[in-house]
Amino acid sequence: MEYIVEKIGMSRTIDTSSTPVTLLRLINTKICEVCDEKKAIVAYADGKAYNKAIAGIQKKYSLSKEFNKFATLSLENAELGDQNLDVLSEAKIVKVSFRSKGKGYQGVIKRHGFAGGPAAHGSRFHRRPGSIGNCEWPGRVQPGMRMAGHTGNETITAKNEVVSFDAENKILVLKGSVPGFNGAMGRIRIVK
């Protein structure tokens, strides 16, 4: 069973041994169409722009204007209407998928953790990558060479333990951190 969630932020428990936790808010979703026995198309409110293409899909499934985002989720025995959230009260471990924070174009020190050179005495080697190839064979840069480039903004999936679930406010508390910025939309899937 998959669910759409929004990352609220991080906090910690107030026990004797304080544990870092991440708070996720479950988003209300409506099951619009059941594709097969394991997949379904769902709609949810994202609060972003509204256009004619979205309006056409909303008319097709007779949805209100607040449901302006659509996704395909793995659901078992899905029926049209609101998605059932009662299963989460018994969940122990979930898989969380979010887009990581985008950091733009970064050098090798930040992207791959290279050491860099000495800072003084005219070394002329501070934050540069250094030599990237062999002069004789193969005479080209090998694939997978660690160089500067775009960092972050990729989908990351992590396993987290469920600490608690507030069914009234639809807030899921997970042990540890979750990738992405506060307010990011992602998915969770129940493992146990």
TrEMBL record:
Domain of life: Bacteria
Gene3D superfamilies reported for this sequence: Translation factors
SUPFAM superfamilies assigned: Translation proteins
One GO BP annotation of this record: translation
InterPro entries: Ribosomal_uL3 (IPR000597), Ribosomal_uL3_bac/org-type (IPR019927), Transl_B-barrel_sf (IPR009000)
UniProt GO molecular function: rRNA binding; structural constituent of ribosome
Keywords associated with the record: Ribonucleoprotein, Ribosomal protein, RNA-binding, rRNA-binding
Gene Ontology terms: cellular component: cytosolic large ribosomal subunit
Pfam families the record matches: Ribosomal_L3
Function summary: One of the primary rRNA binding proteins, it binds directly near the 3'-end of the 23S rRNA, where it nucleates assembly of the 50S subunit.
Cited PANTHER family: 50S RIBOSOMAL PROTEIN L3 (PTHR11229), LARGE RIBOSOMAL SUBUNIT PROTEIN UL3C (PTHR11229:SF16)
Subunit and partners: Part of the 50S ribosomal subunit. Forms a cluster with proteins L14 and L19.
Family label: Belongs to the universal ribosomal protein uL3 family.
Name assigned to this protein: 50S ribosomal protein L3
Biological classification of the source: Bacteria, Pseudomonadati, Campylobacterota, Epsilonproteobacteria, Campylobacterales
